[in-house]
Write a structure and sequence with these properties.
This protein is α+β, with helices and mostly antiparallel strands and 129 residues long. It has three helices and five strands.
Amino acid sequence: MSHQFDLRVYYEDTDLAGIVYYANYLKFIERARTEFIRGLGIDQKALKAGQGIVFAVRRVEADYLTPARFDDRLQVRTEVEAVTGARVILQQDIWREATQVFGARVTLVALTASGHPARIPAELRLRLG
């Protein structure tokens, strides 16, 4: 299962040198994850309201490979690596044309609205998997 999300680097995303500020890559992959989940037909607000389940980032392993700069057109590529009863592991890479600029392995966990571990409903595991 994979997804692509296109974006452009704005001035507000960069530091004084015109290079994307390191923390903004995490924002870029967060936006891509949200659109990926939405594209699967999963309404996260309804999931929380109806079943009391939310997803949270448990772990991020990030590699900053080459800088992205102001006005670059980027693409975030998201691929599901694994889905278990309570977690989803994704590989999220950011590309500028044929050059990978960033890569992250992201582990999401399912939680109750109060923050306790929860199982991902079987229907959602099928959509993710």
